[in-house]
Amino acid sequence: MNIILECKKMRRTGFYPAFIAGGILASCLPVMNMAVRADTFKSLPQPPLTILLDANWTMMAMLNVLLIVSAACIMYHTEHDDNAIQKMQTLPLRESGIFFAKFVLMTCMSIVTLAIEALAFLFCSLQWFDKYDGLYPDLLKNFGYFLILTLPAVLLALAIASACNNMWISLGIGVICVFTASMIVSTDHFILQIFPFALPFRILAGAASLTIKKFLTTIISEVMVIGLAELIFLRIRKALV
Q1: Taking the C-alpha atoms of 129, 182, 10 and 30 in order, what is their torsion angle to the nearest 10 degrees?
Q2: Please, what is the Cα angle at 50 between 47 and 55, to 5 degrees?
Q3: 65-84, pLDDT tens digit by residue?
Q4: Could you tell me the CA-to-CA distances from 103 to 27, 56, 203 in Å, in that order?
Q5: Cα angle at 42 between 129 and 115, to 5 degrees?
Q6: pTM of the entire predicted model
């Protein structure tokens, strides 16, 4: 019920067009890169998908995380506008249910964005490289991994947006976190690597299986911790109103 309600509320905003436009914009990067530098990339010895991801994913991941931050601000701007959250507290609705419904909706739209980007990588692989048998499984594994890595960033962006009455404050915090993540993504310190906004920059290709397991385990822990912290915050805010 909460998810249906959130879907209806978002129809009055630019939420859905933002995700679709963001996915298309990010998808243009590998296509344009290959169109300009095809000979350079085709001479590399790695598999086509690995070459494309190494060349383009850092910028695409930054666009994706910025999109998540902006979308979270859009979602909660409608709630903070005209004290709508305070009014909802008088209704038989649980704020936690609304929060996690937003999380599910944002995750679904992230899937749409990643699917658009996956199609761009598939097009580049088929257009400029020789076809190889493992292309489709590799594509599914990589973008499934990207989706899982995105979950803590989605949850944290929503938590920040829910805590800030002013949309510009939450947007500013989110943008600072994204650019901080872009600077620490190449570090060797695992603690810094698991910063939620830095996780979507990781690439499956070339990563050791033990490292992948560590990241997946950490992501589960981060999702639980952020979700629990949000529940505690909502209870405290309701008690203080």
Answers
A1: -20
A2: 125
A3: 999 999 999 888 877 776 66
A4: 24, 27, 23
A5: 50
A6: 0.91
